[in-house]
Specification:
The chain contains four helices and no strands. The chain is mainly α. Helix 3 runs antiparallel to helix 4.
Length: about 100
């Protein structure tokens, strides 16, 4: 498995048990997700959407509010991060095949 696939798996495991995560762990996972998404967007040439709602903004807010989030909000934020990373991985894998 690649590092990206491993990270996606880590996110999914965390999302399945959000009540077991400390606010620090939630914030750390979301911050790593933000960095990963930025790096992958750069590799794909996909720019972030500055004028409209961008998932990175939501993830940053969730990271900063980790202490105040419910288990459902934690799960949703982590699942959103995993979904974006998975989608970008598919795009990058497709580019590698060309």
């Amino acid at each position: 498995m690649s590092l990206t696939t491993d990270f996606i798996s880590e996110l999914i495991r965390a999302a399945n048990e959000p009540e077991k995560l400390s606010p620090y762990e939630v914030s750390r996972l979301l911050d790593r997700s933000i960095d990963t998404i930025r790096d992958m967007r750069e590799q794909t040439g996909i720019a972030g959407s500055h004028g409209i709602k961008d998932v990175l903004i939501d993830l940053r807010v969730a990271s900063e509010r980790a202490r105040d989030l419910s288990a459902a909000e934690i799960r949703d934020a982590i699942i959103d991060a995993a979904d974006v990373i998975r989608t970008l991985k598919i795009v990058l894998d497709g580019k590698d095949e060309l």
